[in-house]
Amino acid sequence: MHRYALLALVPAALARVGTHVARDGVTTTLPRSSGATATSAPITVRAGQSYDGQMKNYDRSPRVCSEQDETGEDDAMFVLEDGATLSNVIIGPNQAEGVHCKGTCTLVNVWFEDVCEDAITLKQSDGTSKIIGGGAFHADDKVVQFNGFGTVQIQDFFASDYGKIVRSCGNCDNNGRARHVVIDGVVAVDGGVLCGINTNYGDTCRISNSCQDDGKSCDRYEGNNNGDEPKKIGSGPDGNFCTVTGLTESC
C-alpha cells in the first residue's frame, strides 16, 4: 500500500472514535475504544496480509505481563509475519510483548495503553518497517526494540512516560550489521532520548520535525554481541551517526 494511502487511514480512524488531534496531526491522547477483545494467545497476521482492529482494545487473558522481565513472542498481543500490516488497534496492559514483527511490517494508528516489557519488537533481516501514527504510554524502558536489521521509519507518533522511543539492540548475539532509524513528526514527553544506536556497527538515527520536551535526541553506544551491557559513548547529534533538524522542546 502506498505511504499516503496508509496515512489516510489515521484521521479516518480517529474521526470514528472522536479523538482530539493536536500538534500538526499528532494525537496526544489515547483514543476511545470501540469495544474489547481478550485472547489467551497472540493474534498472528500472516505474511503480506492486513489486520484492521476497528479501534477495539486488544489484551491478553489471563495476564502475562511480568513488568520488565524478558519473555518472548508467545506473550505478545500480535505477531506480524513478513510484510504484514496492523492498523487501528489499542493494546491493553495485560500482554507482555506488544507487537512482534518477524519480518518487515507496517503499523498504522496502533496504540499501547500501558507498555509492559517493550511495545514493538522488530526482527526483520533487512528492509524497512514503518510505524505511522499511534502512540505509547508508560514504557519503563523501550517503546521499540530493534533486534533485526535494515530500517525503521517512525512518523507522527506520540509517547508519554517512557525510557527510549527506539533502541538498536546493544548486545544481541547477532550484532555486527547496521540498523537505521528515521524519526519524523514524533512528539515525546516525560521520557528519555528518541533513539539509542550502536555507532561501531554503523547505525544511524535521523530525526526531523519532532519534539522531545527536554531536547533529548540520541544516545550513542558501543554495541557488542556477547551479552555485556553496552558502553555509552556520547549523547546528542554528532553530524554523522545522529543527525537532527527541527527538534523542539515545546511539545
Automatic annotation (TrEMBL):
<dbReference type="InterPro" id="IPR012334">
    <property type="entry name" value="Pectin_lyas_fold"/>
</dbReference>
<comment type="similarity">
    <text>Belongs to the polysaccharide lyase 3 family.</text>
</comment>
<dbReference type="GO" id="GO:0045490">
    <property type="term" value="P:pectin catabolic process"/>
</dbReference>
<dbReference type="GO" id="GO:0030570">
    <property type="term" value="F:pectate lyase activity"/>
</dbReference>
<keyword id="KW-0964">Secreted</keyword>
<dbReference type="GO" id="GO:0005576">
    <property type="term" value="C:extracellular region"/>
</dbReference>
<keyword id="KW-0456">Lyase</keyword>
<comment type="function">
    <text>Pectinolytic enzyme consist of four classes of enzymes: pectin lyase, polygalacturonase, pectin methylesterase and rhamnogalacturonase. Among pectinolytic enzymes, pectin lyase is the most important in depolymerization of pectin, since it cleaves internal glycosidic bonds of highly methylated pectins. Favors pectate, the anion, over pectin, the methyl ester.</text>
</comment>
<keyword id="KW-0732">Signal</keyword>
<dbReference type="Pfam" id="PF03211">
    <property type="entry name" value="Pectate_lyase"/>
</dbReference>
<keyword id="KW-0106">Calcium</keyword>
<dbReference type="InterPro" id="IPR004898">
    <property type="entry name" value="Pectate_lyase_PlyH/PlyE-like"/>
</dbReference>
<protein>
    <recommendedName>
        <fullName>Pectate lyase</fullName>
        <ecNumber>4.2.2.2</ecNumber>
    </recommendedName>
</protein>
<dbReference type="InterPro" id="IPR011050">
    <property type="entry name" value="Pectin_lyase_fold/virulence"/>
</dbReference>
<feature type="signal peptide">
    <location>
        <begin position="1"/>
        <end position="15"/>
    </location>
</feature>
